[in-house]
Fold these 3 entries.
Entry 1:
Amino acid sequence: MTDLQNTFSTPNIDVECREVGLRDGLQILQTIFPTDEKLAWIQAEVACGMPEVEVCSFVPPKLLPQFADAADVVEGALKTSGTLISALTPNLRGAQTGFKLGIQKLNYVTSVSVSHNQSNVRRTPDESVADFETIVAERNELPEDQRPILAVGLATTFGCTIEGRVDPKAALELGEKFIKAGVDELVVADTVGYGNPAEVKAVMSEFVQEFGSQVPIANHFHDTRGLGMANVFAALEAGIRRFDASLAGLGGCPYAPNASGNIVMDDLVFLLEGAGLRTGVDLDQLVAIREIVARNLPDEPLYGMYAKAGAPKGFRTASQAA
Amino acid sequence: MTDLQNTFSTPNIDVECREVGLRDGLQILQTIFPTDEKLAWIQAEVACGMPEVEVCSFVPPKLLPQFADAADVVEGALKTSGTLISALTPNLRGAQTGFKLGIQKLNYVTSVSVSHNQSNVRRTPDESVADFETIVAERNELPEDQRPILAVGLATTFGCTIEGRVDPKAALELGEKFIKAGVDELVVADTVGYGNPAEVKAVMSEFVQEFGSQVPIANHFHDTRGLGMANVFAALEAGIRRFDASLAGLGGCPYAPNASGNIVMDDLVFLLEGAGLRTGVDLDQLVAIREIVARNLPDEPLYGMYAKAGAPKGFRTASQAA
């Protein structure tokens, strides 16, 4: 593991957690989460010490009505401080929206699976790389203090609902293209919860070996088949120190009824802090945020074992023990 | 890892799974599972290739009415073949019941936490070791072909609801005493779901290093705080190749409402087979057994992500790929 993997926007932490519930969690839901309640959620995340919050996706409201309030949400979120405010963009147009709003980080996404990328953004992965090169060029024309960090998510690295198994070599090759294009961070994603910890450890070790000295590498896991936390531990073993997750595991999979979505942020922080890795996140405050989600989405299942069972007797987080 | 960790009762497997749902899953439930339905469950486990099924606990019916039919269940289970039929016993009297019934394996339990052992069986751990020595002696007086395997579960190794954190050294010391007493297998248990994968890997590596050349070592994990599968992967990394689990994660924790109990057998088999480790268990057949549990316990929550989401597209188990 290189030092670069241990360099974070927040001081005194060992692992960086990033809340994606407001984006990946909300995007498939029919219920529109009110703008002021999104802002209450974001403010609570900032208050509990979350290093990054992905607050929306820059897509046409016709496609995802949940993000019709993206401009208001980003504007409100940017009034907070201490937490990186990011947004997802599938293309140049979304990135341009982000530039205008002064977003601090953009998470661009491309699927390793050609079929999945075609289905998702109607482009080949190479066309997505070309699109990203334009985003980098336009970002670099902004005044230096207004340039957002540009991350790229390599979706379906561990499998895809259309193609099934995906060759990890394709993910590594695509990662290299994005590094040449000037990406600031790679986010290796198990988009549909196909990943197995043995494969995760092997593939992420290759990512760290190949690119670890050039960019920070993160993981984005889904818990669709129950292996999310095992995949986190496998990635930790490979040297990964940045993880996406969603409060209460919000965001089921639209293709698998009753199947859960993102890994649960509360359980992730419990795993990391219990392993002696400081996250900078106050676990009690984090768990309390579930109430904001619950009151706005009374019919959605909230996941997370830690919140239900409570802390082990005498449990001290790594931060408390430090 | 020693060869002993890869020596199983079932041929051509890489990891041995043991179904404990009929014992650990049922023991805290008020609803009595009918005897013939227990036998249907056991037969289905045998049919799907499960290497060991723990079918009951030998305790007075007054304490656990769920096991009042232990004799009938063991007798029925022993008519099957290909699967090791085991039972839990907390003491010599239970072991003697097992001897009479011709049980094939006895799982004796002692808590590493002194307070937990006192509360559970009203003895110090050392008194439990002495009790176990008598069990070994009586077992050795049986005709050679009637001697059950004697395993010992080291409960609360990773923490305890009374004492909180438990010193792993105490677990290692207790394990050594049981090895001197003649135990055939050690089962290191996270009884209340306090374990963290970083600690599991460290502690289980010590167990394998200290005792791996003398006895097989197994793990018994609970998923109470969501880290069960991560703990399995951590234990695999330490060289452990035997795991207890419960179909559909049956068996909540009586002290933590809504908290789950044992790790989910279906998710465990999915993890192992996906990691290229043959279990000998037919995953489709295993998932189908959930129906037997559901029809007898309509009000109990059934856990397990794999069963809800289904197999990844094109997924092949290690056995299918072999």
Note: Chain A touches chain B through 48 residues (CB under 8 Å).
Entry 2:
Amino acid sequence: MTGALELGLPMRRPRAGLPERVTVWEVGPRDGLQAEPTALEPAVRAELIRRLAAAGASVIEAGSFVRADRVPQMARSAEVLAALGDLDARLPVLTPNPRGLQDAIDAGAREVAVFLSATETFSRANLGASMADAEAAAEEVVRTAVDRGMRVRGYVSMVFGDPWEGAVEPDASARLSERMLAWGVAEVSLGDTIGVATPGAVADVIAAHAARGVPVDRLALHMHDTYGQALANVYAGLEAGVRIFDSAVAGTGGCPFARSATGNLATEDLLWMLDGLGIEHGMDLSAIAGTGDWLSAELGRATTSRVARALAGGKEAR
Amino acid sequence: MTGALELGLPMRRPRAGLPERVTVWEVGPRDGLQAEPTALEPAVRAELIRRLAAAGASVIEAGSFVRADRVPQMARSAEVLAALGDLDARLPVLTPNPRGLQDAIDAGAREVAVFLSATETFSRANLGASMADAEAAAEEVVRTAVDRGMRVRGYVSMVFGDPWEGAVEPDASARLSERMLAWGVAEVSLGDTIGVATPGAVADVIAAHAARGVPVDRLALHMHDTYGQALANVYAGLEAGVRIFDSAVAGTGGCPFARSATGNLATEDLLWMLDGLGIEHGMDLSAIAGTGDWLSAELGRATTSRVARALAGGKEAR
């Protein structure tokens, strides 16, 4: 038996009305690794990023400038950036506060990202601040970075549901997105942190943004696959005109609150759908799958990517 | 932490233009179990079907009338039916040849199903016959059953891709569906046997059927989740007007050719999306998930349903 990719699968079957090209924003080295029990050395994280770039990834979240005692998986992110000075890829990093931003600037970062929560409970649990205080802190980081000519991404967590509060109204994230764009962020990534969204909710959240004048080309979708819904939600996002999608090679990450093995949407699974739809993304699925296999071995865990598992099974069967 | 379902998740967010109600055709006791390494006794299979019916399943594939030496997992399907004579649910069974049909009739079956392959290679490998010979055999079964007033479902395998031939043209399945409907089948279930389809292919296959005069209300989608694409494909099917979807509790089954742990779309994952979209299906997700947990224990394997795993994780965390 030959492998699926060598057989020309998935079949390329475009759909009218979908974007012709999208940006896959690879979050594995940051959002993925920060939630893994195994912490990787900076040299290994840099090697992962080099492999992703070689496979065609053009935007790769490279690290997080946070307290190493709180997120040991992201310790020494400056060394990761230092090892990648020559790389031809955008390497945004997470900077949740002014101290983190300064450290990122000192490390040579040119793109940064900040986080807000759409719910009060998660803001206090995860950011350690009320929504109002978190907004004030994020605004300071964003304005400082923008003043220095940096590109800034805003994230909103718990857009589609919250493990304490349950349902979240679409306007809760739209309100935050509107504010962050006013501060100067280039785009807002809408996070389904616990993976509970379904396609109608995606459409409603994008519509709530449009009602506040936030155009869809300033939005990214960051779907977790905890309940297996991520790709259906991406498809709903494509139909609504979204052209930026976050994913993590090998499906690394996860939500500690759901205690599930599945975390971020796997880049491999996303690329399979995009390839089938004939939507350009600039990455090579086979090379990304190889990178995911390498990363899974480094982490000592099985991939959660169904594409990666199926491709590996096909190779065994040959 | 409270469980997701108790928190009212997923959020109910309907989409205009989708069906208000669908039939979930539960294939776990047949298509699921026939591919599991552990064979369950007829009494256990009957208990599974009773639990599914109690959870609201209205159509449950109950068994297969095939040679027990070829498919030992389906041996003694007559005993399964005999144990369920009083059950308030439709219980179709697979009858690939006239002998199987007669055995099913003798066992009291009122609904049966036949199979064809959209590709020559799979027809010879799986059905042991050329496509032409398989069509002739299926026609005999269908006409005999229809003459006796039975409801017959036709299946087409390898609709979206084949592990030997690669891409499959949409009209290959449409041609077979047109024929089977002419013989008198009530509906045709289109199978993505190796799970390679993407949403554009689903739309194209349905359009190819329409071009041959096959209306969408005579079609069911039978998506495997091998490459993680099943739910996105179901969503594309809903948008195209499909109102019958096959799934298997706990994601049992799988394609022996892909050597993947993932098989049929898990009923739990399908119900999560349908509940979020506000589409009625008559089943209770919590009860189905409980049935999947019970079945997984009987099989001695982990569920492949992401919803089931996430719900179990949420319970642990409480």
Note: The longest strand of chain A covers residues 111-117.
Entry 3:
Amino acid sequence: MDKLHEPLSCQAACGLPLALEVMGERWSFMILRAAFNGVRHFEDFLDELGIARNILSNRLVRLVEGGILKRDHCADDRRRVEYCLTLKGQDLLPAMLALRQWGEKYAMGVPANPVLCDARDGIPIAPITVRAHDDRIVRPGELVWRDRLQCTGHDLDALVKSDA
Amino acid sequence: MDKLHEPLSCQAACGLPLALEVMGERWSFMILRAAFNGVRHFEDFLDELGIARNILSNRLVRLVEGGILKRDHCADDRRRVEYCLTLKGQDLLPAMLALRQWGEKYAMGVPANPVLCDARDGIPIAPITVRAHDDRIVRPGELVWRDRLQCTGHDLDALVKSDA
């Protein structure tokens, strides 16, 4: 693990605080998870999560303000409001599934039911792994921190552009 | 997103609550992150995180009880205590990096400095993605929930065994 040392001064500016703000709050996380499951309407979130009305209302406002959910009028009934994941919200899927898989592995020893599968062939998705630029799986001991200036622009762009 | 619907009754038993308990609390997360960065001693956590002594003490106990960190006497100085990541703790790396990458992408538009690289070639790691069993990248709209009984044992084992 010693190779994995990051200078102290950088620990505040690494992007985790924002992610934590969204994912670190239990109800926000559960709302997000329901949104990934196709839940869109206030009353449906209420039913599925067993959450208090005022808390749900508060968290939905925060998720919309944070650009994770988009509040819209339904196409088929303009009086109804629906909450959909934005692209930014959809991009939370790898983090959410990595957390879920970890919980399954250590909380239960078997995957939860139902199982998330590839729609194309119905086979369960693979464990989420850390990959090198050429797709090799990288383990914690095989990682090292480098200054951005030592990395080429092309390499860095890959980390912030939309998925290939 | 409609394909991604999970029956309500299963939402409580999916393994997320355990993961949330560990990752969802801001200080626990920051302690874990420091541990991934090679921090091992109480006083070093204290210095690096700017955390109150009693909170650090409390969170370390909880992380040890949760099997995420192991409390040990240093090999070179038996009077000193060190906290190291267990295998269960190390397995949180994909989730932690997925969260970090998301925060980088949306909070700053550029990766934080320093950049986490593959030690072998010094090139930044790839964005964390969701993969099918045959390693194809799968997107949110290409996922479907299936009952465990419809999946073969082999497929399910892949999700809970140690990384290949």
Note: Strands of chain B lie at 69-73, 81-85, 115-118, 143-146.
